[in-house]
């Protein structure tokens, strides 16, 4: 499918089929009056990250083809299986995190097939913005991520997109693969993953962060004629250390998203169902807490929190 293969100056609702499954993903394609590049926007790669999904829906509905140069394709809900199952992190059919299996496999498991369908479409895009937020049991402070892969030109463009989005915290990630943005970078497509929203809430402020960010992206990349307004300076981090639960039990957190902490600070503790402490959790490095698990229930290996540092 050619992402821009519709008449100039028009918008159409469409579906992206996932071959080998009965999954169809709702998409909108908007083709501007003037020729240009193609922007892909994806929402709902994680099913419980509602502001990103809502922002994708409203962005697609509100974008006027008349003012657009080039084309925009929006996947409103990339992971309907997780969304309707109210499943945190994973596609329930295979237990896989969709944002760890990109670019997917045509004949793989359910998550891999969905990733493959989206990644195949992404090959025809010039830029990609993937909308996220804290999942059902994640408190989070807004941040944007881009990959350090794909060569200096791709990295520079992705960094410029992250800075244009208007979120104060930015991560340059050295993660190897599996995510939308890392997969995009390896295809030579500048991409960012943007996080706003948390704990399973459809929070209007977070929706607006995404909508403002997307408008900024359109301006920064020349998809619309308006100039990008000056953004507040953002801070770029290159270290991102996750702490996972060493034990299964009840997680009592002692930190909040957005808090600056020091290595060795108490971050929380895990207790057994009798109330006895089974693990003391400490901060792994100095930095800012970008997300922290909010569920009392924790399984061994679950992410507890992540700290970013320069
Ligand atoms: Zn996510």
Task: Give a written overview of the molecule.
With 310 residues, the chain is an alpha+beta fold. It folds into two domains: 10-235, Aminopeptidase (3-Layer(aba) Sandwich), CATH 3.40.630; 238-309, RNA polymerase II/Efflux pump adaptor protein, barrel-sandwich hybrid domain (OB fold (Dihydrolipoamide Acetyltransferase, E2P)), CATH 2.40.50.100. Helix content is 23%, strand content 34%. The chain has six helices and 20 strands. The protein has helices at residues 50-62, 80-85, 110-122, 152-165, 180-186, 204-220, and strands at 10-17, 24-31, 34-43, 69-75, 90-91, 96-97, 127-132, 138-140, 143-147, 169-173, 191-195, 235-237, 239-244, 249-253, 260-261, 266-271, 277-282, 287-293, 297-298, 303-309. The strands form four sheets. Strands 1-2-4-3-7-11-9-10-12 form a nine-stranded mixed beta sheet, sandwiched between helices. Strands 8, 13, 15, 18 and 20 form a five-stranded antiparallel beta sheet that branches. Helix 1 (50-62) crosses helix 6 and helix 4 packs across helix 6 (204-220). The radius of gyration is 19 Å and the shape is globular. The protein starts with 9 loop residues before the first strand and ends with a strand. It binds zinc ion (ZN). Zinc ion binds at residues 46, 49, 99, 132, 135.
